[in-house]
Input
Amino acid sequence: MIGGVRIARFFGFEVRLDLSWFVVFLLVLWTFAQAVFPERNPGLSTTVYIAMASAGAILFFFSVLLHELAHSAMARARGIQVEGITLFIFGGMARIRSEASNPKDEFLITVVGPLSSAAIGLILLGFARAAQALGLPGAVSGVASWLAFLNFVLAAFNLIPGFPLDGGRLFRSLVWQLTQDLRKATRWASLSGRGFGLLLVGLGVVYLFGGFLVNGMWFIFIGWFLHQAAESSYRQLILRRILEGVRAREAMTRNPETVSPDLALRDLVDEYFLRRRYNSFPVEDSTGRLLGLITLTQVKQVERDRWPTTRVNDVMTQVCDAVTVRPEDTLAVVLSKLESAGVGRALVVTDGRLEGVISRADVAQWLDRYQKLH
Ligand SMILES: [Zn+2]
Output
């Protein structure tokens, strides 16, 4: 799912901001102005602190963006389609169409993120030293050295060897290379992520009892997030692999009952919708040519007293506008087509001939049966 507000394009990558990001940006701004800079650079005026905080928050935003741009650019260089970048509460995420197909690509795509953060940190550190040597105002080197520190933290945090963090991905690519088994590698990296998550929670508890309330809460929060993310990203990968291994023809409803385009809505309701368990019917003419799809929702949009005089043909979705898939498409393809069209069902078609109908419910039922059997 793509959420957030589109803000710009950088090097051909669309950048979006998740709504959570705006809250965090204000929080960062406030923390910088109220606590960080007054403590690190004492004796300056409130106006200067606000200016430093604004510059710092914007530079922090670009630091996270550059980290994600590095991942995206390397992914594109390795032939993987990148839709764009979403910046959210914990930094950012490159929206990559598919996973790397081999461990070497995964390693390269991942390693450039922390490397670029570390490089930005070094550059800012050099800049801070130069500003000091040139006698520029203390505010300038203050912002630069703080941002240098944050970039080193960004690199270090991302290197925690727990999936889905960069460190977890690097760990996964190494296990993948050694075992040639992506599923096993993901499971190990996910277990390691859950372990490190719990470790952070434990550290947080120690901090809490030591009287460091805020630090303790942050460790617990981040640790728990990592623990959950490690588990759910493993499940997503397994689900994706299952869905990529099954064809539409195996989960679809075969030879579905069809209705005529000339049928009145009154008859359609009485003879089909009220007597069958389906919420939609494909529409075919008398020669068996597929014309479209009529759904219960479309019927409900017509006033009741007009049902006897309105025909299926007047309100149905034309076949050219309906979502169609081929019997040999995988369930992953079916779901992504349904998702991007925002509808619940697709017509399964070969050479213009109707083979079946497949809905989200069909896919869910198929998965349910699969999981009961495995
Ligand atoms: Zn990263």
Remarks:
- Residues 5-244 form one domain.
- The chain has two domains: 5-244, 248-373.
